[in-house]
Amino acid sequence: MMLQLQEVSVRHPASATPHVAALSDLTLSINTGEQIALIGPSGAGKTTLLHTLACAYRPAQGNYILFDRQPWALSERARHLLRRRLFLAPQTPPLPPRQRVVTAVLAGRLPSWSVWRALRNLIKPLQPEIAFDALARFHLQHKLYERVDRLSGGERQRCGLARLLLSDASLLLVDEPLSALDPTLAIQTLKSLQQEASERNATLICSLHQVELARAHFKRIIGLRDGKVVFDSEQVTDDMLAALYASDHRNARTAAHPVASPADTALSGKSVVADDPRCF
Q: Is the dihedral of CA 28, 74, 95, 137 positive or negative?
């Protein structure tokens, strides 16, 4: 067992109504090597759940067990060391705008580098060839020495995912990696993520608005609504989806069609959490 949530509730620190739980009484068990899609309407709690699993948000109640440890019972230093075993890829990667893509991607190696090696990498990239190979997995190798602030939204997303490839994490938490990509590139990106997870026997948990892609590519799908698990199933039916998106017409259309709407593909269409944690 890689992780367990036992009746976990979480209050979002940046919420206008902090007394209202963003996640309520969640109980989940996830094994090593599983690949899981999180789906649900906007505001269902998908991002909050990923950040909770990354030890960025502390549960208000319940128990969270990760790698056979209770992260919030550890010292801050011990918890930081535990977080080195996971990688969180936010929808909007926190990449320094004036940094070169090669340096941003190589930052995926930071948890295993000494401070001196990390500083040297800022001055001159130490292994540009492995950054090139990682970017090539997402058809972005031609941007190796481009500045981050000159990338499009979709290119920044893929730059963040290339950084994930260079980490040695065994838990990969990915938030809406396809939101700014066209349908063909979205499928290629999803396959690259899943291939990487399979090759290193890592657990992949990925939130998606493209419900048909989730059904086609993930064996296990968890549906969230109002901070609660509506279903956790290997066979998601149309009736289950209709109930999940019953009063959310925009997401109901997304559930019916694998191609994201323009509103979904705009990175600016989703507010950024004030204390959005860095990539790990």
A: negative
